[in-house]
Each structure stands twice: as structure tokens, then as C-alpha cells.
Write a structure and sequence with these properties.
The complex is a heterodimer of chains A (about 350) and B (about 575). Chain A is of the alpha+beta class and about 350 residues long. Chain A has 2 domains: about 230 residues, P-loop containing nucleotide triphosphate hydrolases (Rossmann fold, 3-Layer(aba) Sandwich), CATH 3.40.50; about 120 residues, RNA polymerase II/Efflux pump adaptor protein, barrel-sandwich hybrid domain (OB fold (Dihydrolipoamide Acetyltransferase, E2P), Beta Barrel). Chain A has a 6-stranded mixed sheet, sandwiched between helices. Chain A has a 5-stranded antiparallel sheet with strand order 13-12-11-14-19. In chain A, a hairpin with a 2-residue loop joins strand 12 and strand 13. The two termini of chain A are about 40 Å apart. Chain B has 2 domains: about 260 residues, MetI-like (MetI-like fold); about 270 residues, Orthogonal Bundle (MetI-like fold). In chain B, about 70% of the residues lie in helices and about 0% in strands. In chain B, strands 1-2 form a two-stranded antiparallel ribbon. In chain B, helix 7 crosses helix 8, helix 7 crosses helix 24 and helix 13 packs across helix 17. Chain B is globular. Chain B starts with a helix and ends in a 6-residue tail after the last helix. The chains are: A alpha+beta (about 350), B mainly alpha (about 575).
Chain lengths: ~350, ~575
């Protein structure tokens, strides 16, 4: 059973009227994994989560959890805990009653219940808040209570629907870590829906990037960031400069009068028209004139971003300017100024190639 | 190992290919099915209590006495009879006049309460909505004592008679005013200070600010008030019955046709004509509500009225004037009920409260009313709230919910008089299996709940929509039955709305005349009907006394509502505090 996925989605389609929210989505999730569904709003990530939870039924396709077909199983008979974006805490029940809400139907004794509630509150770092009401808690605290309530029945699957989006930046960064640590400790298979790439990159074991109802890429955060499969992934996760080019073979790409050398791996599969891409932090400034892909550029604009400086570069003989990020350490050596000419390099091993006119 | 994993993957595929029938059954759990069944019962109940009676009424209007189809013959007969046709003109005149007066007054007083810095706003507000607690017959009776043949200030009319259009307009304005005021207050409550600041910064004069900022925001409220008042007046028959004299209006016509001449077909015909303005109002109101919601943004900053000495003084004077008129009319009725024998023996006594000595059902009718109002409040609130809950929060059952919503909105477009008549046609038919409830307390309760259904349904729906949409999903994921979450969370959270509905139903059941006047029997006479009958028999002082009793009872009910809301709920709803 070791190589059997804990959760298996097979060819899920979802139609809302004439709008196709999900197109042929298939996905395997291993036990204990932390998976993020990442994508812009309307990409179908929430629809997919709702299907996994049983809140919606897919138009077609099947869903297996721990080997059981649960496609048509009512929510009641599924094994999951869920935290909604709004938390959906019961406002008239105390924190303890909220957390114990699911314990009642499972024939827990009063003492067991209390013990479980204190244990869960300790786990989420809110010991002693039993008698408070949700309205008396901060957003971050409410979020933890919602998490504790979802975990109370020890579900095999934890679903998080944009759990951090209602919080301010500092609390969000803090909770991000906490949730991840908690998940590792409990080992519960977790699916989180988010539109925040930073959240996905820092928390997930596996990221599922979605766009317009289809999965664009599945991979670890590193894979998705360093080897994006499609221009969409490249642009949505992190930032990316794009250069339209023609494939001249042998790894040589021509964009206008510019010739760029790429890794000559398998460029033949891309066809004639390609899109080259490079991340702002991958553009180098300390190279020599005779390096590959070394170019002359003019600094159009500089923007101070704290730990780094963002520059807008007009490459000679090339229309669209490129964005390049320079760390403050490097900056102190370069001493760039607006309007200045500079030598920059687009390293061949950092250039991504995408086929077609996508 | 390998085999078993293969098996688990293969099995379901076989299952789906053979078991399509059970597929749609299985994705709902048992308690979802049982709640769906309750919703089904609700749809059926509304179908029987609202849709079928109205359908019967409509079909009666195109039949003759023998029950044969005659097309529009009844209608052409109606328009060919000058006295009947005159009723339309009269009704329109009364309705237009009252609408103009009430809309203007309610806008001004609502402005005074929400947009000026006059003192005693709470007191004024309480006084201005007092008429809602009295049956519409009370102002009419009061007017008889004030301006009637032996009225104490009849000289003010300078020879004009109160029995006729003047009396009907004043009486109608009195009892429709609180309804208008409440809509106006809501319309004027939502202000955005930023708009006023922008207007000021841009150098707009106060008058220009009023016409470019204040008025547009309240526009839909004003239109809504105009339509509501128009419908209330044109369909009311209490006031014209008591003070209308020889002045015929549509509503009294129905009453005369049915009760006086037993001409049910013509009654149905007039009813259908009376349905038209109500339906027009209904459609306009739906349309307005869709537009109104788009006006408000969540970022609005409430506006605080600046000190405007002359404006505040003017409005204070107006509020005092309107309050004096309202209190005066109410006190006149109270005084008249206590005077031993108007106008010859002005000593005070409770003689007029010996209802058992008069025609009209005596004290029994009062206790019947209490019983009817209590049942209406208890059963009505329970049924309405739970059904609204199912419509708002149960998963699936789209078609049932759509039907339910349609049926629940329908009563708003049906005047009480029309509904009462429809009930006679439907429930009194010998071949109706529900014929047994005709003439009992049950039909009064059912009719009253149906009559006031829409407002309650909308109140409940609004309250339910304000609570988190995911409660049911959360409780399902925690394996808690939905009904338990209703009991532990939804109901307690919506308690203020539940109390509002109960109190609304009780007060309306106490004061309503229009629908029940066709449906009461000798054993189930009601207080509000007794007012009408005693007045008809010339016992005007006892009629005033009964009207006062109804008003006092409603005041007590409102007090209980207030106590429950402010004392009991404050205690159990500590979670609302931050």
C-alpha cells in the first residue's frame, strides 16, 4: 500500500451553468503531505477544495480517500476537518464549546472533552482561553480556535480555505510557520487553498498551481520556482522577465538583433517561436565583456526596496526593458545611478525557454 | 498488497456503471433528506393556504352565481354600474390624497429624527409609531368624537362634514403613518459623511446639498413609502366603514357586496380590481429593493448633523405638532371610552367596558383575540422561522426553495380583504377536505399567518443571511446533525429577529380586521371585529373602549417584547459584547 496515494482525484470536471470551473483535474496526494492549491481568484482552486470536502459534487470524475470512493459520500460520512476563510466560529459559544462541538456526537465523557479541549488549546498556543467568546479574540486567535476545532476529531485530512487571508501581514507570517510546524508534528494530510505564492512556497511540501480550471504544474516549491513548466507558472510564482525570440538551433535564440545563448539541452522541441524568461534576481552585473549573453544596458529607473534595489534596464537594441534585482551588498560595489550605462549578463543556465506564442 | 490496491480502484468503477439510481440518493445524508421533507411540507402548506385560495378567487370572478364561466361579464357589469364605478374614483382620490400627506409628513419627521439635533428624539419616535398598536378603526372613532355631529371641535371644519372624504383621509393618514415612518427612517439612516464633506468642500449651498446628496439617497425610500401607503389606504375598509358615511370606496364595496348582499361573484370581481394596485406596488417594491442595495458601500462613514439653530427649531415645532395630533387622537378615544354617556353625562366610568351588555361578542371576543394572537405568534413564528431557515441554509433542493420563496412573497401583494374572501371561496367549498376548519379558530390563525407572512419571512431571511454561510458545512464536517446546529447556534444568534417576528404577528393579529371579518363565526368573534360591529350598531363608546383595550394589549405585548429583548437577551447574549 505504500505507493498508493491517500487522496486520489481522477478526471474531475465541474460545470457551473455554462462556465467550466474545473477541466479534467487529476491529482494524487500522499499521506502526511502538505499540499497547496495556488492560483489567482477564479482559477478553480476553491471549487476543487469544495469537491474534496463534499460541499459540492463534481459534474464528472471520481474521488478516492484511503482507497474508498467518496465522490458521492455525504459530508457527514467523510473524514476531514475544515477551516474556512471566515473561520465560521459559532459566535454564541465559548472557545471551549466551539472546539468541543464535534466531540459531543462521538460519545465523549465530560472529562474527556475538557481534557481534549485543553490539549488542543495548548497545541495552538491559547491555553486558558476556554471561557472567552470569539468576539473577544483577535483575528489570529480566532484562526487558531478554528484550527483547534477542525483538529478536535483527529481527522485524516485537514482542509484550509485561505486561512490566513483575513489577517494582517505580521500575524500572517507568524501563523504560517506555526501551522506548518503543527502539521509536521501531527502528520495530518493537509490541503491549503491560497492565492499568495509566498504562503505556498514557505508552507507546502507540494504546490499545485492552477489556472482557468486546469492544473498548470505540480511540484515541490523549489521545482515550481526554478523550473516552471509554463509561462503562467513562471509569472505567477515569483517574478519573471519575458523576451520573445526565434529558435536558431544549437541553443541560440534570436530576439531582434540580439543573440542569446541558452543551455543547448532540447531546444528543438520548442519549435521556431519561443519565449525566453529570466527572473530579476538572476540577471548579473559583475561579469566580463566576453562572457556569454553579456549585454550593454542603460539604467532607466532605480527603486529602493529595503534589502535590495530594483532596477529597470533598457538593453541596447531591445525594445522592452527588463527588471533586475540587486542585493544591497552587490549594490554597494556597483554604485548604480539612474541614466548610467551598465554591463549585465543573462546567464545561460538561468534562461527558461517556453515554446510557442503562449 | 498489490491485488488489494487494484481491487479498491476497480470496484467503484463497476459501482457507478450499474448503480446510477442510488447515486443521487446517496450524496445526501438522512437528516438532509428529513429536513428536505419538512421543507416540502412547508411548500405544500403555503400552496394550500395562499396559492389555492387566490386561484379560487380569481376563477370566481369570471363565473356567475351558478358557477358557469362567463368571461369578463362581471367586470363589464361592474363598470356599467355608476355607483360601483364611482367607488373607483373615490378610492383613488382618497388614496392619492393620503399618500401625498403621509409621504410628506413621514419624510419630514424621519428627517427630524435622523438628520437634526432636536432633543427628545427617542420620545418622539415612540409617540410617532404608537398608531401601529391600534386597530385602524380607532382613529375613525376618535374623529367622530372630535369632529362628528356632537364633536368637541367640529367648528374647526368650518361647516364641512367629517363623515366622508375628509374623515377617511385623516383616519387613513393616522394609521398608515407609522408604516411610512419606519421605511423612511431606514431610508434616511444610511448616510455617508464623506459625501457631505465633499459637497461642502466643493462649495455647495445647503439647499443644493439637500437636492444632490440627501434626496437622491432617500429617493427609493420615498417611492417605496408612496406605494406602500397607497396600497394600504386603497385596500383598508375599517376607516371608510366607520367614518365614510355615504362615500363609497372599493373596500367597503366588497364588504357590502359579500356581507350585505351575499353577492360573492361581484365581491370577487371587486377583489380582483383591488389586487391591481397591490400587485403594482409589489412589483415596484421588488424592483426598488434590487436597486437600493447597490447604493450602499461598506466604507460609508456615518454623518453627524451639525447644529443648525433655525432648522432644528422648525423641526422641533413640527415634531411637537405631529405628536400632539397623534396623542390627541388616541387620548380622545380613551376619554370617549370612559365617558358615561356622551355628550349628556360626562362623568367618568367603566360602563362602556361592560362589553357583555352589547352586541358584538362581549368580553369573549376580546379573549378570542388574545387566544388567536397568541396562537398566531407562537405557531406563525415557529413555522415561518424554521421554513426560512431551511430555504436559507439547507443544501440543494433548489426547485423547492424557489417555489417556497415565490409563495412566501405572494401574500404581500394580496390585501387582507381579498385574502379573507379567497378563504371563504376555498375553504367553504363543500368538496374541500379542509372544509372542517371553516368557522373555527384554526382558519383565523391560518389566515392571519398567511396574511402577514411576507414581512416575517423577509425579516427571518435577512437575519439568517447575516450569519456565516459556512456554519452548516463546519457542523457537517464535525459530524454534528444540522438540526442540532440550528438549535445550538442559529436560533440563539437569530433570537432578536425571532422576537421581532413574534411581536409583529401578535400585534397585527390583535388589530387586523380586513381578512378575518369574513371568517369569524358566532363562537370565534374577535375584538377588532367587535369594534366594527358595535360601531355599526351605534354603540360608538363601547367600540372606542374595545379599540382602547386592543391598543393597551398591544402596548403590553410591545413591553414584553422590549423586556425580553433588553433584559433576558442581554443576559443570555453576553457573547455579543466585545
Amino acid at each position: 500500500m505504500s505507493n498508493q496515494a491517500y487522496l486520489e482525484l481522477q478526471n474531475i470536471h465541474q460545470m457551473f451553468g455554462s462556465h467550466q470551473a474545473l477541466k479534467d483535474v487529476s491529482l494524487n496526494i500522499q499521506e502526511g503531505e502538505f499540499v497547496c492549491f495556488l492560483g489567482p481568484s477564479g482559477c478553480g482552486k476553491t471549487s476543487l477544495l469544495r469537491i474534496i470536502a463534499g460541499l459540492d459534487t463534481p459534474s464528472s470524475g471520481e474521488l478516492f480517500q484511503a482507497g474508498q470512493n467518496i465522490t458521492q459520500t455525504p459530508i457527514k460520512h467523510r473524514d476531514f476537518g475544515i477551516v474556512f476563510q471566515s473561520y465560521a466560529l459559532f459566535p454564541n459559544l465559548s472557545v471551549a464549546d466551539n472546539i468541543a462541538y464535534g466531540l459531543v456526537s462521538k460519545q465523549f465523557s465530560q472529562r474527556d472533552k475538557q481534557a481534549r479541549v485543553s490539549e488542543l488549546l495548548a497545541t495552538v498556543g491559547l491555553s486558558g482561553s476556554e471561557t472567552k467568546y470569539p468576539a473577544q479574540l483577535s483575528g489570529g486567535q480566532q484562526q487558531r480556535v478554528a484550527l483547534a476545532r477542525a483538529l478536535a476529531t483527529s481527522p485524516g485530512l485537514l482542509l484550509l480555505d485561505e486561512p490566513l487571508s483575513a489577517l494582517d501581514a505580521r500575524v500572517r507570517a507568524h501563523l504560517r510557520q506555526e501551522i506548518k510546524q503543527l502539521q509536521e508534528k501531527l502528520g495530518v494530510t493537509t490541503i491549503m487553498v491560497t492565492h499568495d505564492q509566498e504562503e505556498a512556497l514557505t508552507m507546502a511540501d507540494k504546490i499545485v498551481v492552477m489556472n482557468q480550471g486546469v492544473i498548470e504544474q505540480i511540484g515541490t516549491p523549489q521545482e515550481v520556482y526554478t523550473h516552471p513548466n509554463t509561462p503562467f507558472v513562471a509569472e505567477f510564482v515569483g517574478e519573471m522577465n519575458f523576451i520573445e525570440a526565434k529558435n536558431s538551433g544549437d541553443g541560440l535564440m534570436q530576439s531582434g538583433t540580439l543573440m542569446l545563448q541558452c543551455e543547448p539541452s532540447s531546444e528543438s522541441m520548442f519549435g521556431e517561436n519561443v519565449k525566453l524568461a529570466i527572473r530579476p534576481e538572476d540577471i548579473r552585473f559583475n561579469g566580463h565583456e566576453d562572457d556569454k549573453n553579456s549585454l550593454n544596458a542603460q539604467v532607466l529607473h532605480l527603486e529602493f526596496l529595503g534589502s535590495r534595489v530594483r532596477s529597470l534596464l533598457q538593453i541596447d537594441d531591445h525594445e522592452t526593458p527588463l527588471i533586475a534585482d540587486i542585493s544591497m551588498n552587490e549594490m554597494s560595489g556597483l554604485n548604480l545611478a539612474q541614466g548610467q550605462s551598465v554591463r549585465c549578463q543573462l546567464p545561460a543556465d538561468r534562461l527558461h525557454i517556453f515554446g510557442g506564442h503562449a | 498488497m498489490n491485488q488489494s490496491s487494484l481491487a479498491t480502484v476497480d470496484q467503484p468503477k463497476i459501482k457507478t456503471s450499474q448503480g446510477k439510481g442510488s447515486k443521487w440518493l446517496s450524496h445526501r445524508s438522512l437528516d438532509e433528506w428529513s429536513l428536505g421533507a419538512v421543507l416540502m411540507i412547508g411548500v405544500l402548506a403555503l400552496f394550500i393556504c395562499v396559492v389555492l385560495p387566490i386561484y379560487t378567487l380569481l376563477s370566481k370572478s369570471i363565473e356567475n352565481k351558478a358557477g358557469e364561466f362567463v368571461g369578463l361579464a362581471n367586470f363589464s357589469h361592474f363598470f356599467a354600474t355608476p355607483s360601483l364605478y364611482n367607488a373607483i374614483n373615490n378610492s383613488l382620490l382618497i388614496a392619492f390624497l393620503s399618500t401625498f400627506i403621509v409621504t410628506t409628513l413621514s419624510f419630514l419627521t424621519a428627517y427630524g429624527i435622523s438628520r437634526t439635533r432636536i432633543p427628545f428624539k427617542g420620545l418622539f419616535r415612540t409617540i410617532l409609531v404608537l398608531p401601529i398598536l391600534a386597530p385602524s378603526l380607532l382613529p375613525a372613532i376618535s374623529l367622530v368624537y372630535l369632529f362628528g355631529n356632537q364633536g368637541i371641535i367640529k367648528e374647526l371644519l368650518m361647516g364641512e362634514s367629517i363623515y366622508g372624504p375628509i374623515g377617511i383621509v385623516i383616519g387613513s393618514c393616522f394609521w398608515t403613518f407609522p408604516h411610512a415612518l419606519m421605511i423612511m427612517l431606514t431610508a434616511l439612516a444610511n448616510t455617508d459623511a464623506r459625501l457631505y464633506e465633499s459637497a461642502e468642500v466643493l462649495g455647495a449651498s445647503p439647499i443644493r446639498t439637500f437636492f444632490t446628496v440627501t434626496f437622491p439617497a432617500a429617493k427609493y425610500g420615498i417611492i417605496s413609502v408612496a406605494f406602500v401607503v397607497f396600497t394600504l389606504v386603497i385596500t383598508d375598509f375599517g376607516v371608510p366603514k366607520v367614518i365614510g358615511g355615504q362615500f363609497n370606496v372599493l373596500a367597503t364595496d366588497i364588504y357590502k357586496q359579500v356581507i350585505g348582499q351575499q353577492n360573492f361573484e361581484m365581491g370577487a370581481t371587486v377583489s380582483v380590481i383591488l389586487l391591481l394596485p397591490a400587485i403594482l406596488t409589489f412589483i415596484t417594491d421588488r424592483w426598488l429593493q434590487r436597486r437600493q442595495s447597490a447604493l450602499l458601500t461598506s466604507k460609508a462613514v456615518p454623518w453627524v448633523a451639525p447644529k443648525r439653530l433655525w432648522l432644528d427649531r422648525t423641526f422641533f415645532a413640527l415634531m411637537v405638532l405631529v405628536s400632539v395630533v397623534i396623542v390627541g387622537i388616541i387620548l380622545m378615544a380613551v376619554y370617549a371610552s370612559l365617558v358615561t354617556f356622551w355628550p349628556y353625562n360626562l362623568s367618568l366610568s367603566f360602563n362602556n367596558y361592560n362589553f357583555d351588555l352589547m352586541d358584538g361578542g362581549g368580553w369573549d371576543s376580546y379573549w378570542n383575540s388574545i387566544q388567536m394572537a397568541t396562537f398566531t405568534a407562537l405557531i406563525g413564528t415557529g413555522f415561518i422561522f424554521f421554513q426560512s431557515y431551511l430555504v436559507a441554509k439547507l443544501k440543494g433542493f433548489q426547485l423547492l426553495k424557489w417555489c417556497f420563496h415565490l409563495f412566501a412573497i405572494l401574500p404581500l401583494a394580496v390585501p387582507g380583504l381579498v385574502l379573507g374572501l379567497a378563504y371563504i371561496f376555498f375553504f367553504n367549498a363543500p368538496n374541500n377536505p379542509l372544509n372542517g376548519i371553516y368557522g373555527t379558530m384554526t382558519i383565523l390563525v391560518v389566515c392571519t399567518i398567511s396574511h402577514f407572512y411576507t414581512v416575517c419571512h423577509l425579516t427571518a431571511t435577512t437575519a439568517l443571511k447575516q450569519i456565516d454561510a459556512e456554519f452548516e458545512s463546519v457542523s457537517a464536517s464535525l459530524k454534528v446533525p444540522q438540526i442540532k446546529t440550528f438549535w445550538r447556534v442559529t436560533l440563539p444568534v437569530c433570537m432578536p429577529a425571532v422576537l421581532d417576528i413574534a411581536s409583529y404577528l401578535f400585534v397585527n393579529a390583535m388589530t387586523t380586521v380586513s381578512a378575518v371579518v369574513f371568517l369569524y363565526s358566532y363562537h370565534t368573534s374577535l375584538a377588532s371585529v367587535a369594534v366594527l360591529n358595535m360601531d355599526d350598531a351605534g354603540d360608538i363608546a363601547p367600540a372606542a373602549a374595545m379599540a382602547v383595550m386592543i391598543m393597551l394589549t398591544c402596548m403590553v405585548a410591545r413591553l414584553v417584547h422590549w423586556l425580553l429583548g433588553n433584559v433576558l437577551l442581554k443576559h443570555t447574549q453576553s457573547w455579543r459584547q466585545k
